[in-house]
């Protein structure tokens, strides 16, 4: 498995594609080589390592990285809210805003939308899933929530894992309308969330630093959102106002530089995921789709 390419299903082309991995050589060394794993344990998972890299990507001279990055990964500059020449640092480019029309929010009563651009896995019953990125590799809700009471409340619920690559739009949004509570920090390490790392140890997702927000909604009951930090993620920044009602697709916050992840959990029986997400996830293949596209429908409206 060590040299296996990362394959995902593209919702828009309806075909399997191979991911172009940012920093692939470093990731494979760090997570697939014994010497690399030693360095990972000693250095790369720790806060100061990522904080330093985040600082470096916020310096003015880092703007020299912007245009080569755009060219290498063939990013669509027509989506950017401002010219690629005007970003003052790589980090400013990294958490760029987009033109609203480039991420339309799916309409319809009882519709839930994807909270972020990225590669997505869904599990209609998280407790019954055979595995997440590979068969037999799971974490528990108790580990994820770091709270036994909340884990019981969401037992048997439906889970979405949205993995953001460095090439993706790095703002995250609310999947449904409702009233969000405070974002609570759960302290942890900063391992990579690339499949290269997660296929080796899915536990990185629950060992990493993350923020938990609980939403009260009319159609979907209580919804839990986690923003998971990762290696070289400078910070997780929340931009919403606690307790103020939000609309589906409204911005919640952003990640500074690095790959990262959003995990969304619905209570049992509250959502029916889109068929393409379910079909690909059943064979451990992520589906690429963009923020605002359909995630699923309220279970009471899906029949």
TrEMBL record:
The catalytic activity of this protein is classed by the Enzyme Commission as 4.1.1.65
NCBIfam families according to UniProt: PS_decarb
Q: Which PANTHER family match?
A: PHOSPHATIDYLSERINE DECARBOXYLASE, PHOSPHATIDYLSERINE DECARBOXYLASE PROENZYME 2
UniProt xrefs under Pfam families: PS_Dcarbxylase
Per UniProt, the keywords (alphabetical) are:
Decarboxylase, Lipid biosynthesis, Lipid metabolism, Lyase, Phospholipid biosynthesis, Phospholipid metabolism, Pyruvate, Zymogen
Its GO biological process annotations read:
phosphatidylethanolamine biosynthetic process
Q: Which cofactor does it need?
A: pyruvate
Organism, scientific name:
Cephaloticoccus capnophilus
State the pathway, as annotated in the record. Answer: Phospholipid metabolism; phosphatidylethanolamine biosynthesis; Lipid metabolism
Name any one GO molecular function: phosphatidylserine decarboxylase activity
Q: What is this protein called?
A: phosphatidylserine decarboxylase
